[in-house]
């Protein structure tokens, strides 16, 4: 029994350490700050522009990319096409991209912007900016990555090209959850 346990641990380390190291390297290449304590994600419920009301905790079990933006923010608008590419690439998998508009006032500017550019990813409305406080965001664009267990694992401040191969590699690794798969071999 002890030998099986040691073999299982060795296999787990063999598969998880290279993936962990590679994942951290990808964070650095993309400019994402790792959230080391795997902080549990605060919950919220927001109305959407092109979706119904969304409650974050209902999405647990998916990898979630939360992007905070506004129509008046030039860098925010610059990264939107790459976010659409990321969304289209992963929309059939356990991946959710949510763009949270923090435009204050009427939702019309946000609705018009999304319709004009034909973005398909879900866009939520937070005119009071409550989610900015929940996630301790003080500048936009900002992005938070949440794992399948509902823990914040990364954050980026400023615009990114979300359609780069490094981003796809990172999302693939998070979706594949290699250590979890190795543990499931035991059963």
Characteristic key phrases:
187 residues; alpha/beta; Glutaredoxin; 6 helices; disordered C terminus
Question: What does this entry look like structurally?
Answer:
With 187 residues, this protein is α/β, with parallel strands linked by helices. It has one domain: Glutaredoxin (3-Layer(aba) Sandwich), CATH 3.40.30. The protein contains six helices and eight strands. It has helices at residues 2-30, 74-90, 108-117, 130-134, 165-176, 178-184, and strands at 33-34, 45-46, 54-55, 63-69, 95-101, 123-125, 142-146, 152-157. The strands form two sheets. Strands 1-8-7-4-5-6 form a six-stranded mixed β-sheet, with helices on one face. Strands 2-3 form a two-stranded antiparallel ribbon. Helix 3 (108-117) links the parallel strand 5 (95-101) and strand 6 (123-125). Helix 1 (2-30) runs antiparallel to helix 5 and helix 1 runs antiparallel to helix 6 (178-184). The model is unreliable at 5-23 and 178-187 (pLDDT under 50).
Secondary structure topology:
Layout: H1 2-30, E1 33-34, E2 45-46, E3 54-55, E4 63-69, H2 74-90, E5 95-101, H3 108-117, E6 123-125, H4 130-134, E7 142-146, E8 152-157, H5 165-176, H6 178-184
Parallel strand pairs: 4-5, 5-6
Antiparallel strand pairs: 1-8, 2-3, 4-7, 7-8
Helix pairs in contact: 1-5, 1-6
TL;DR of this structure?
The protein is an alpha/beta fold and 187 residues long. It is built from 6 helices and 8 strands, in the order H-E-E-E-E-H-E-H-E-H-E-E-H-H. The protein has helices spanning 2-30, 74-90, 108-117, 130-134, 165-176, 178-184, and strands at residues 33-34, 45-46, 54-55, 63-69, 95-101, 123-125, 142-146, 152-157.
